[in-house]
Amino acid sequence: MPLCARDDGLSEVVGFVLILALIVVALSLYQIYGVPAAGRENEIAHMNQVKDRFIDYKIVLDSLWLNNRNGVLLSTAFDLGTGAGATGGSAFALPPILTPPAVRGERSRRRAGGERT
Question: Which terminus of the chain is less hemmed in, N or C, by CB atoms within 10 Å?
Answer without folding.
Answer: N
